[in-house]
Amino acid sequence: MPHLYHFEDADGSDRDLLGGKGAGLATMTALGLPVPPGFIITTEVCRTAMTTGALPDDLWEEIAGAVTRLEAKTGRTFGAGPDPLLLSVRSGSKFSMPGMMDTVLNLGINDEVVEDLVAWSGDPHFAWDVYRRFVQMYGDVVLGIEEHRFQGVLTELRARRGIKDDSQLSAEDLKRATTVFKTIVEEHRPGRLPTEPMDQLRGAVKAVFDSWGNKRAIEYRRLNAIPETLGTAANVQMMVFGDLGEDSGTGVCFTRDPATGARRYYGDYLPRAQGEDVVAGIRNALNLDDLATLHPDSHRQLLEHMSRLEGHYRDMLDIEFTIENGVLYILQTRVGKRTAEAAVRMAVAMAGEGLIDRPEAVRRIDPVSLEQLHRPRLPREVGRKPLVTGVAASPGAAVGMVVFDADEAVTRAKAGDAVILVRPQTTPDDIHGMAAAVGILTSQGGKTSHAAVVARGMGKPAVTGAARLQVDTGVGVAHAQAREVRYGDLLTIDGTTGAVYVGAIDLEEPETLPELADLLSWADDIRHLGVMANADTPADAAEARARGAEGIGLARTEHMFMGERLRVVQRVILATSKGARTAALAELERLQVGDFEGLLEAMDGLPVVVRLLDPPLHEFLPSRLELEQEALRRVRAGKPIDDLRAMSDQVARWEEDNPMLGLRGVRLGLIVGDLYRMQARAAVTALRRRLQAGGNPMLEIMIPLVATAEELRRMRAVIEEEVAAAEKTTGLDLQVPIGTMIELPRAALTAAEIALSADFFSFGTNDLTQMTYGLSRDDAEVHFLRDYLDQGILTNDPFQTLDPEGVGRLIRVACEEGRMANPGLTLGLCGEHGGDPASIAFVRGVGLDYVSCSPPRVEGARLAAAQAELNTGETVDSR
Amino acid sequence: MPHLYHFEDADGSDRDLLGGKGAGLATMTALGLPVPPGFIITTEVCRTAMTTGALPDDLWEEIAGAVTRLEAKTGRTFGAGPDPLLLSVRSGSKFSMPGMMDTVLNLGINDEVVEDLVAWSGDPHFAWDVYRRFVQMYGDVVLGIEEHRFQGVLTELRARRGIKDDSQLSAEDLKRATTVFKTIVEEHRPGRLPTEPMDQLRGAVKAVFDSWGNKRAIEYRRLNAIPETLGTAANVQMMVFGDLGEDSGTGVCFTRDPATGARRYYGDYLPRAQGEDVVAGIRNALNLDDLATLHPDSHRQLLEHMSRLEGHYRDMLDIEFTIENGVLYILQTRVGKRTAEAAVRMAVAMAGEGLIDRPEAVRRIDPVSLEQLHRPRLPREVGRKPLVTGVAASPGAAVGMVVFDADEAVTRAKAGDAVILVRPQTTPDDIHGMAAAVGILTSQGGKTSHAAVVARGMGKPAVTGAARLQVDTGVGVAHAQAREVRYGDLLTIDGTTGAVYVGAIDLEEPETLPELADLLSWADDIRHLGVMANADTPADAAEARARGAEGIGLARTEHMFMGERLRVVQRVILATSKGARTAALAELERLQVGDFEGLLEAMDGLPVVVRLLDPPLHEFLPSRLELEQEALRRVRAGKPIDDLRAMSDQVARWEEDNPMLGLRGVRLGLIVGDLYRMQARAAVTALRRRLQAGGNPMLEIMIPLVATAEELRRMRAVIEEEVAAAEKTTGLDLQVPIGTMIELPRAALTAAEIALSADFFSFGTNDLTQMTYGLSRDDAEVHFLRDYLDQGILTNDPFQTLDPEGVGRLIRVACEEGRMANPGLTLGLCGEHGGDPASIAFVRGVGLDYVSCSPPRVEGARLAAAQAELNTGETVDSR
């Protein structure tokens, strides 16, 4: 296989081999766009270098041949007059990694060629500026000399001349700067600045390939889940000069508005500049209307090219262009990044225009991004620069006072302050502080860090991994760019972009997006997988319903036992007489009837799956450790502790070494008399009342933590007794499907027998993952999960994305064998994975009927389910 | 199918249908032995009654026909003179349940028939005694009138006459007793004593079938794992009378000595008595030599029958016989119960005699019983009656002072006393007390109770479920039979028989049994499954080797970290500087080298599998709760607690909510730098030293708690580095197989990939059971496992006997797929299940190479492995 391809010979659809930039250049060349000629050294070369530790020996010969062909094509000569050919070398991998890898421009210049360039251009200022740029960039990128050493020279020159912009420097100044730059390079890397153009090219190519392995690129790939093994291509291209004179310039444009999705061309143009000047934002750029005035022909051509490219790629594109002496060149194109709102608008609009079909519109949108559409946001124009930018970990924006401690966050929030919790990183010990905060900012960790995961789960904006922020929680101060942020200071964070601003910025409520309803209705037409919601209150149920949930797949009754209910629950647990216990149980039953009525009413006409109590009873009591700590406080204060002693004895009866593996779920139902019966009776009473009130309630009852069919058989019998009793007294026909969670490996392995007593299975993949891996999520997150991910021992957090080999295999077995034993069995999944697109794709492949997720994730799940349907046949591991 | 079979028509091999007693009667009839004629109402009738709630309608007609046939055969008439036929109805299920179900004798008597019987026998004393016995037994068994009401009458009569034995009562006294008995019955159950013989028979048959479901029978079946569904047969048989006169009598005999296994006939004979009198032990019985003097013909015939039966059954038999007027009848036979010692001796002897072959000898012995051969025992003749008899829960005898509290047991044991821990039941909180005691006695729980299981695990004698003992731990006293046992009193318990004696009885050391070595060598010839031992010390290793272990399958390094080592381990964990940590680790390494050298030397020439550290590090620290409790004590004593605070902060860093699912096993190896590397280096150093000392050490290293192949790959690389380093410095070729525990469901499910980095798998079925069921053994034992077993939600304790459907399925998958991926993979099991015969049979079926169990269970495992081989094709669930 050749190591390189000329743009005109390359297959623009092969992004794996050519990288994104190379593929774009090849495609544009094939479309007849004015692309400066060049060639692509493939990603395969980079992969070879990673494996063998060196670039292939015959690469240089091939490059030399390719340069000769370029010279022939352009009629210019590399590194020689009268028409000198200068080259750029730019990185470009399959997935865009903006700014992470290296680029070297203006290759092929030296003390002789600069004079040729003066002659060729008739512009010594231009020629020496090109030489200056080359020395500076080669010194920085290839030789690793710190950028500020060069900047210092320019800063001093500008100061001496009293000017603000390098372009105002004279040719003589630039010549002097070039000489000084060469001295700096010679000082730091003696003899390492090549004067021979081919040596310069070799150095640049090597540097570009090496940059795949630099630290920030590795970190970026880790945070964005880009495989290490892909490698980058290196694109070698003839230089065209936006800085050649008044008739030259350079710009960036989008075929539609990347912020709103509006169908209008959009772009920046900087006269007399090279591309890096646009990115650096040194001067204020002009817009496309200005360009139309300055260069009407180029402007017209540019619009034609944009239209051509959008027609070809059928997507919004981001394009870089240069005008050299009035001639337009297109230097790069790629599918443009956009906000979630813009993505939805564009996809629906393009489907309306016939550019794409509806399934493609559905496919275009990242399901996870939909959550941000419902969160307060920053205005389109913020009008200030971010202090730092971290990882966009949980979308939405938040404004609040800085607090460095979780306890303090709770205190300030109680006092009515909006709080941004700022930490190097968070742990489960910080959960209460995170819950109290309006936003979370950390200096460490990426999209899968604890802070990111928990914030997304809570629906709170978060920026993580803001590495340039130094957080000292001890002193209570954070530094960035020589600026201090102290306790109580106001910050604004944007979890959608990762930007962090000093001070308060007024947020905007999101507009409702009519296109979203269209898109989701298309998704609903495509998908077969049902989407339900996990909801424990009527308010949650209503929100879920508004987002399109087709019922409640998981109503956790233990959440109804918290708050002021806790005292009643404790009376049940601690009752010393049968009478006291019965009375407390009766009170709890009365409360539960109300809970269930509320849920059934909010979801009238749709199923509501009530899960009976799951956690161990001691979760409703203080721990012995807490009681001992309180006892110590009291003894020191000279107060009696007898009541604590009594409580401690009670707690000791219930406490467990490993509560996750203890007396919980159906075990409680079987061992602690009447608890499950009470809950079942309360649910059936609620059902009856809703029926009698003329509603259409659809109650289902679910039993957690079943390990053996016998457990389910017995518990089912108890529930059926309560249903039958209610039917007898009311004469109503109460249809109550009874099912079980499949959340223990044994339940999955014996699903055939369990299915005989179940109307439905709901996979509790959080517990199933815990048991299958033998790890407690909470403990693992504190002690080693982060390290496992950082070190690559795990490639995914199995609590975020379902593990297909282990947990998934159990699900597959349970589905197949459960359905075989009971063809009428309904199959669902409830848990965090229910909102994760990869997990949704997996369970769709396995043949589940529905997923159930938290209300904010329902829309995303609808979309992901449709995408999974569209991708049928492509994905889903099967063993 | 007929409801009943006459003895001569029945197939004596069909114990399922006929029950054990009926099958024996049929067999003896077919062999021509003098069996009184009769018929067997099948177990199928009992099962029908259990299902439908009633005996079949046509049963009574069939019985009437069978009685008519009996009358024809015997020439007697049921319930009429001149030759009255009296009948017995006796229960008899497939498995012997001695004394648990009902028997009614002397049916067919009433006010008229008794006169016929007087005429027939010429002995009014006999006739009225028969009548008296009938009323008493029918009243007790069929009508449920308390036995003591009848006994009271006899006691009073004996007192009035000044005699000690009912047989000395006059005919007139017996007639009067009969009248009083009838009055008692009429008072309590008016009109319920039938005078019509067929009504009596019906009542007795119903009572016998009903007795399958009585409370003590259910409890017995539960304790002995006999299925509820089997049902009993009812044997209806002509009465012959051992109490007819001086030429009559009744007895029990064994074909060999059931206590020692010696080849000699052995039995008791009681002249002028019915069978129940022998069992009740009212009078001192004669022996078989006496019988030879009294009835030489009957004695000769009896020996012939015994020989005939042993030849037929090819086993030692327990026979009941009656002599009626000088004529010998055989009433029952069954394979006789025996001690473990007798079982081994007899099996080996019978193989020597050619009665059975060696495989049959191997098959005969209960593998679990072998443990008791090595324990101190009671002398053959104890010379006193037990205070109570409970469940023989853990074999061997023990003598010690009574202690009612686990802490006190520890204190007394430290003071040098031998202690018997007496509790209503034990929980894991009592473990330290159990470890300190020489024996355990509980009033509740059977063979699978916590006390039984733990005691067997510890190799300590235990009697459980001594229900007649009322234990009041609060007061510190136990009552039985109006006798008090107090703290400090001496008791002797016999875990082999369940007997509990007041006072000290001198125990005997077990003799070595040469037959055992023969038997085990035959087993070794048969089995393919290897048997290794779990051993952590050279002493354990030596014991295991003496018992025939073929290596150490599990050396738990954490056990080497206890005792005085604990301080060094704590220094490693709590080190605040790198230097301090390195120094502590180095000290630990030095100690570990010694540990491993000792093991390798004790097992020279056999494999030693060293498992790297498994438990979480906080197990080596005090808990925060303990520290708080200590702090409270100190504050009250006015002492400072700063050091406790510091320790508590340290502990808080490590403590986990669910340590079983936390930072342990390979996770420690990967996260806590250098710990596993240190252990591997220490093991390799020990290997090197043993090699240099001229030994033949065979080290293997095992990594616990692997969930993903990547964990194993990385850890294996670390160990291989240490091996390679040692090879480099010494020039030796160190062969160190590296393998993994398979103890997490995910490891089993991804065994194919894991196998690529493993030389062996060892199934850790304790953890695997915990994770598969999602239950912690310790917590479950305290909170619900007992209830689950009592209520029949679980039929077996899955920690005793491997669960084939869930855990077993994972093992099967891992074996098949692991071997497919790596055909050289060795497969073993280490854990409690390694000593359990049913589990051994399962894993043999799956194709494991070896099991590893505690040293006292090695011999049993060798035997069980052979039995599993012999039973190939019969058993092993396969799905």
Walkthrough of the structure:
- The first copy, chain A, is of the alpha/beta class.
- Chain A contains 34 helices and 31 strands.
- Chain A is elongated.
- Chains A and B meet through helix 22, helix 24, helix 26, helix 27 and helix 29 of A and helix 22, helix 24, helix 26, helix 27 and helix 29 of B.
Protein topology:
The structure is a homodimer.
Chain A: E1 4-6, H1 15-30, E2 38-41, H2 43-52, H3 59-74, E3 77-78, E4 84-85, E5 87-93, E6 103-107, H4 111-121, H5 124-142, H6 147-161, H7 171-188, H8 197-210, H9 215-224, E7 232-238, E8 249-254, E9 266-271, H10 275-280, E10 286-287, H11 288-294, H12 296-313, E11 317-324, E12 327-335, H13 340-353, H14 358-364, E13 388-389, E14 391-394, E15 397-403, H15 406-414, E16 419-423, H16 431-436, E17 439-442, H17 450-458, E18 462-464, E19 470-472, E20 477-480, E21 483-486, E22 490-494, E23 499-502, H18 514-526, E24 530-534, H19 538-546, E25 552-556, H20 566-574, H21 578-602, E26 607-611, H22 624-636, H23 642-654, H24 666-671, H25 675-692, E27 698-703, H26 709-730, E28 738-742, H27 745-749, H28 751-755, E29 760-764, H29 765-773, H30 777-783, H31 785-790, H32 807-821, E30 826-830, H33 837-846, E31 850-853, H34 858-870
Parallel strand pairs in A: 3-4, 15-16, 16-17, 17-18, 24-25, 24-31, 25-26, 26-27, 27-28, 28-29, 29-30, 30-31
Antiparallel strand pairs in A: 1-2, 2-7, 5-6, 5-7, 8-9, 8-11, 9-10, 11-12, 13-23, 14-18, 15-22, 19-20, 20-21, 22-23
Helix pairs in contact in A: 4-5, 5-7, 6-7, 11-12, 13-14, 13-18, 14-18, 18-34, 19-21, 20-21, 21-25, 22-23, 25-26, 33-34
